[in-house]
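Field reference: sequence -> structure
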Amino acid sequence: MRPTTLSVAVRSLRVSRVSRASAYQFVRFNATKVNFHRPDTAGSDDPSAAADATATVLADKNDSQDIPNKATWIDALREREKQLAEGKVLDSYSYVTPKTYDVGEKTRSESFTYLNLPFKDDKWLCDSYINAFGRLRAGQLFQDLDALAGRIAYRHCAPAEPVNVTASVDRIYMVKKVDEIVNYNFILAGSVTWTGRSSMEISVKGYAFENEVPQDITEQTLPQENVFLTANFTFVARNPITHKSFAINRLLPVSEQEWIDYRRAESHNAKKKMAAKDQGIMRPTDEENRLIYDMWNSSKALGSSSKTRDLVFMKDSRVTSTLFMQPQYRNRHSYMIFGGYLLRQTFELAYCAAADFSSAGPRFVSLDSTTFKNPVPVGSVLSMAASVTYTEHIHEGPSDIDADTPFNFKLPATNKISDNPDAFLSEPGTLIQVKVDTTIKDLSSVKAKEAGSFIYSFFVPKNALGDNNPGYCSVIPQTYSEMMEYVSGRRRAQDTALFVDTLPRVH
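Structure field:
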């Protein structure tokens, strides 16, 4: 059966009659002409039709009320208390049986799903996605990306209904600038591109259209030249009864490009497994040892009196935030927090750190590979700490380098200025890498657990406006552990540069 789209139309917004918070929720859930590519009609018991509780602006409120396998928090809470009284642990309220254990084959087109965000056509929808500088508020989009990936995962697994969770975000990268989002209609679209026994990689791309959006939206009708964002997620399937891994449908590539994407994802997953085995082992190379010595030599005489505005000690770049996890941000299984919400919150803190560090409005460039180490329960306390761990100066040439800076040593940039005027790194400036470490503490425990580390990269042009005229900002590591963080950041910057070289060239 051909997928259909869901359309929601409502009366005009009257902000004067509601509080600021409720007005925001009204906009997010009731934007005019928001379309979502649905596998079935409203009221279907297809799990891919059920959205995360507050995932997107897309009519999730309608989903939560109409889809049979959705539940209010009070229903889920009472059921969990009942099960605990019987000595049982309930991981999911809505998914209690996988329904079938049959494993078949599915093509990419069968999981293909898209989301329409018509910012150009809907000023109120645009208003809920715009930041203080009139550009895209990326944290809002991260929620949509993760929710979209979740729907794709459930469509691929159907008719089975395992518990699918986000295991990792392998990369989110802004291919080009889309500064004036009010002039564009966005499409987010993706599908499953690789499967293992119980895991799957989901690739999502963002498309920006200044003119008409294609009427018949398929993977083939979305032009590559309109891509502004790429994202890759890994989801894993678990049996809701045994809590063990659950075998999912195999992906069947049917074209040359699909086979290329499949092999790429296969290679990437093999590298991830090797990296997991070497976790914690990060011996610096000879070149990196020289870098550490040069940093120490440059920073040892740099006291607070000689430090300038554009030089910041790593320890002084730290910002923190603590949040209580409320049920309004739960995932479709009811008891854990939606991964997209964690992405949004960690991004917002990273943005604060980069903005405070540079005294300018940073532009999001990429989110590096991130693994969700532990699920975040509803009712727990989430603590986040963000620090600038690496900076890189993008120069036009040797003459552009300021030789008089007190923190100066020979360090070739891993990235270079792009000849594409729409690219973020198309002008001189500073690449700022921010690491956000997260921990969770259940109220019944005295010990906190790691939830994951999120690495965001931002770009600040050299000529960015601001009271401090940021120029080239530099973070200064002082201790050996900080220098190792700096080295790790440089490695990630190198990986990102290599990734950019693999992207299709659009002329």
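Note: Residues 480-502 form the longest helix (23 residues).
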